[in-house]
Amino acid sequence: MTAYALREAIRDVLGHFWNESFGQIYPTLYALEADGHVIREGGQRARSSTFTITASGRARLRDLLDEPVQESPPRNGLLLRLFFGRALGPQRCADLLRQAQTQAQVRLAELEGLLVELTAAEGHTPDWPYIRLTILAGIRQARASADWAAEGLASLDAVTPDTGASS
Fold first, then answer.
1. Which class for 115: exposed (0-12), middle (13-18), buried (19 or more C-beta within 10 A)?
2. 136 contact partners, CB below 8 Å, separation of at least 6
3. Taking the alpha carbons of 57, 62, 68, 72 in that order, is the dihedral positive or negative?
4. Contact 113, 135 (CB under 8 A)
5. Tag placement on the chain: N or C end, fewer CB within 10 Å?
6. Rounded to two decimals, what is the model's pTM?
7. Is a pLDDT exceeding 90 seen at residue 158?
């Protein structure tokens, strides 16, 4: 798989829970190659090369997957803005919530479509039950986000613009 194909696969298949940039992928592939965890075939540049995982690479992957899960500290620009919502006012906060709701609904539709598509294509493979778990988690998160945004919009209806307090 080329670095570009790897980036596309991460975006398309893992994108609802994992993200990597080209700036992360290329140095990582070079380090994996230096450690003997992947073999590069083709051109001298990563962009034109194909990388294949080696037996030691599979062992290293298993080791990484066995490590305890480390949660990243949360960082949510929307929630930060809503926390300081009085400075923005209820109308701007409502706009942010409508945008978040739309994004969640789009993501929900994408994931539901992905579930149908992959069920037909991958439903018989040994990896499918595990892949399905991640898609179902994304569906639940998107649905919860859309519902939360709707609830937030309803609660902002009771806020008076001048003070930000509920009536």
1. middle
2. 115
3. positive
4. no
5. C
6. 0.79
7. no
